[in-house]
Design brief:
The chain is mainly α. The protein has helices spanning about 10-20, 25-30, 30-45, 50-70, 75-110, 115-125, 130-140, 145-165, 170-175, 190-200, 210-235, 240-255, 260-265, 270-285, 295-320, 325-335, 340-350, 355-385. It is built from 18 helices and no strands.
Length: about 375
């Protein structure tokens, strides 16, 4: 393993310490700092090209290990109070994505003979995830060159979209969407614990030796849950394996949250978020800005219009449906970028109550993505002259 990869576990500690000391950095947020540092190191030549496969493995392992740790602390009773809104918002996201993918297909049909195929991939990936777009590519017989270009621009535009969701999205969409309200009220003790959980100072608890016996036990439990997810994924086809693993990990993580000692273990949420910060560093370091030197404008336009245009239409639908800004943002992220990107955005919004909503609706997206993508593609083909 290249020695440079050792820096990934250290970068979140540096980011947390920097935010603890500098107020201006706290306004940027740990998640964005980890992304930006990763992008800088990745494009400064710090990591050899041979490290890419290991980077993907580290990213996948990090998010799989962190998900149970974050879910252990969830209050499922409180989540049920907002679950209905999240499902409605996810349905609106699917409608918005298909509409904008169809519009993009019609606008680019003169420039790309296979725009309907690109539209099908867009409808699938922006309601589901990478496993869906891979399956749709095979189903629609999309040539590999088109697929690689689409996937490359999807990565770049999605990073810009994630950064927007973490920074300006709540302020921007909050101008016409209502603020998030916790329907299940908390008592004073719960409010104090919630404040401590989301504070930057809470990460100092990870430096206490007395915190680690409990955290190590939860780490073992999380590892066992990940192993169960891997075993479950082996029972399905390659295209469905990722979805099966996430469903298994999420289900077992939620089940473990009903065990009081597990749910009440201190600093479990911070430990899970620390691993998510490492995931952000890895993903950032895999972004190659050199791909912007030779631009395929029709596909870049297609991807940007479907992502940001779909987000805008989704927001308008949520306005009509009276969905709050945080639920809109997290379900948008779960649809466009899939469940692994939900925890960083929930952290940037300082709202862990929407975490489970984002993961759950993302799993729904995995389930419907193939159907929507393939159906939308053939519908688009019939609309083309």
């Amino acid at each position: 393993m290249p020695w440079q990869l050792i820096i990934y576990p250290l970068l979140p500690a540096i980011a947390v310490a920097a935010c603890h000391q500098v107020a201006a950095l706290r306004k940027i947020g740990i998640v964005l700092i980890c992304y930006f540092v990763g992008i800088f190191l990745g494009n400064a030549g710090f990591f050899p090209e041979s490290a890419q496969a290991r980077q993907e493995t580290i990213a996948n392992a990090a998010v799989a290990f962190a998900l149970p740790l974050l879910l252990f602390t969830m209050d499922v009773r409180r989540w049920f109070a907002i679950a209905g809104k999240a499902v409605v918002s996810m349905a609106a996201a699917c409608v918005a994505t298909v509409v904008m993918a169809t519009l993009a297909t019609l606008l680019t049909r003169a420039m790309m003979a296979n725009s309907w195929q690109v539209g099908g991939m867009a409808a699938g990936v922006y309601t589901g995830g990478t496993p869906n777009v891979a399956a749709i590519r095979s189903a629609l017989d999309v040539d590999m060159e088109t697929f690689v270009i689409f996937h490359t621009y999807d990565t770049v535009v999605s990073v810009a979209y994630i950064i927007f969701c973490m920074t300006a999205a709540r302020r921007f969409f909050g101008m016409w969407l209502p603020p998030f309200t916790d329907i299940a009220p908390m008592d004073i003790a719960e409010e104090q614990q919630e404040s401590e959980t989301e504070s930057i100072n809470a990460f100092s608890g990870l430096l206490l030796l007395r915190s680690w016996p409990g955290l190590l036990l939860l780490s073992l439990l999380s590892g066992a849950i990940v192993a169960a997810g891997v075993l479950a994924s082996g029972l399905f086809s390659e295209n469905a394996a990722s979805a099966a693993a996430i469903v298994t990990i999420t289900t077992l993580g939620i089940a473990a949250s009903f065990i009081t000692p597990v749910r009440n273990t201190r600093y479990a949420f911070q430990w899970g978020m620390y691993v998510i910060y490492m995931f952000c560093c890895v993903v950032g370091s895999m972004v190659d800005v050199r791909i912007l030197t030779h631009i395929h404008y029709p596909i870049l336009f297609f991807v940007a219009l479907t992502i940001f245009g779909g987000m805008g239409l989704h927001a308008l639908l949520c306005r009509f449906l009276r969905i709050d800004a945080d639920t809109f943002i997290i379900t948008s992220v779960s649809a466009i970028c899939s469940p692994p990107f939900v925890p960083p955005v929930a952290a940037a919004l300082h709202n862990k109550h929407i975490l489970l909503s984002g993961i759950t609706t993302g799993i729904i997206g995995y389930a419907v993505g193939n159907y929507l993508g393939i159906s939308a593609a053939y519908l688009m083909r019939t609309l083309m002259p």
